[in-house]
Write a structure and sequence with these properties.
elongated; 3 helices; mainly alpha
């Protein structure tokens, strides 16, 4: 006796396995009608290229960044007069 729905499968990812987590994230980002297509193509690729899979796992890269000259910030003049009182007066005029 065959399956009730011949083309339907249920996948349960092991969320403790980084490879499964990456696979789940890829499928989550795939449109709802494209998941089966993506899985079928991945299986075909797997069958054609063997069982050895190299998975990129996130790596922390430590690098030394060469010192670069920092441009001096332009000089900004402070507002003249009683700036903040003018701001508060403007806000009061608008009922804020």
């Amino acid at each position: 006796m065959g399956k009730k729905h011949e083309g339907r499968y249920t996948l349960n990812f092991d969320l403790t396995d980084p490879v499964h987590i990456q696979g789940k994230n890829i499928l989550d980002a795939t449109g709802s009608r494209r998941k089966a297509d993506k899985i079928a193509k991945a299986l075909m690729f797997y069958e054609q290229h063997g069982t050895s899979i190299a998975v990129d796992t996130p790596k922390i890269i430590h690098a030394t960044v060469p010192a670069m000259p920092v441009a001096e910030a332009p000089k900004i003049q402070a507002p003249q007069g009683d700036f903040w009182n003018d701001v508060y007066d403007s806000l009061d005029a608008f009922g804020v």
